[in-house]
Amino acid sequence: MTQDQAIDRAAQKAAKVKAFLKDEALKLGFADLRVCSVQEAKNYEDILKTFIQLGYHGSMEWMRETLARRSHPQNLWSDVQSVIMLGMNYGPDQDPRSLLAHGDKANISVYARNRDYHDLIKGRLKQLASKLVSRTRDWDQGIEVKVFVDTAPVMEKPLAHLAGLGWQGKHTNLVSRDFGSWLFLGSIFTSLALEPDKAEIDRCGSCNACQSACPTDAFPAPYKIDGSRCISYLTIENKEEIPSSLRKAMGNRIYGCDDCLSACPWNKFAQQASEIKLIARDDLTAPDLADFLRMDEAAFRSHFSGSPVKRIGWSRFLRNCLVAAGNSACDSLIQPVLAKVKEEDALIRQHAVWALGQLLCVEQFAHYRSQLMGGERDPRVLQEWQLR
Known about the structure:
Layout lengths: L2 H25 L4 E6 L7 H9 L7 H5 L1 H4 L2 H4 L5 E8 L17 E2 L8 H19 L9 E4 L7 H8 L3 E2 L5 E2 L7 E8 L18 H5 L17 H7 L6 H4 L5 E3 L3 H4 L19 H4 L3 H5 L3 H7 L9 H14 L7 H5 L7 H14 L2 H11 L6 H8 L2
Parallel strand pairs: 3-8
Antiparallel strand pairs: 1-2, 2-7, 4-7, 5-6
């Protein structure tokens, strides 16, 4: 066999494996599978450095710490030749922004209304990677694989763009012609050289609906995001107080935000999720904010077992709910908020006092201040009491 024949035969084998993987991916519940070559992947080191220098990462120091590994796939694993990018549809059955008008309800991001997608997708990726290894077991050179879902230092969205799953919109998230903004991303790194798919082109045009929809003005320019202003960051990654200047803009969003995703016109082609574990639980579609405010830590952990909401912990969860209560204009939430003013956790007390100040008139607030501020020693809580 000549060298050219050997190369051609190897290419044919790889093509068959790729077709096999696409079929298996659909059987496992993925919406699409595409491949990109790491040789064509851009090095994002300079862009990531600028992002951090501008403070757009907020308190997410892991972004600084993993910058080198994140900047290019081969910095994470030197043997990778191809990245298999997969998307799983989690499209909602209605526009999640419709709940924003109901101040007595708690708005949870669509992706967090059922099981934690990290666990679900990682399990499916491992199944698919195992099939790839089995399919190539008798090859002359063993094929290695590694699977990643979101938590690893991988630039999933640029790689998905390069692979043709969609393009990065002006909100920096992936947009698909077939699924709109509602795709979870996962990747399989492999030492096998697969034929790459054609990269998708940017189809945003002059539209800026996603940027206009952002309640906290988190987009300093098209295709750029200030993560420190994003409600998803504020309610999930941020471990400290919610900046007072951004609290009112949060509305009733207690975990994540879907506004920029929902506003995208390409969602007219979106499809509702078919994976049962990604379809919203009834009790998380439009939950009563009062019920969440009354939860103790044990009830919180039980209610959100298996949910991504659980990972922020009870303290941050209550912090978010108290901000939502303060924005609700609902007198029925005054008593649940009052009950949190004497909580042991200062973060909870701080936001409870703020919420009380939003729900009560000046005279009522002064009355409770005279009764409840005595004995307070935390400067942040004292400041909230003294602002009204």
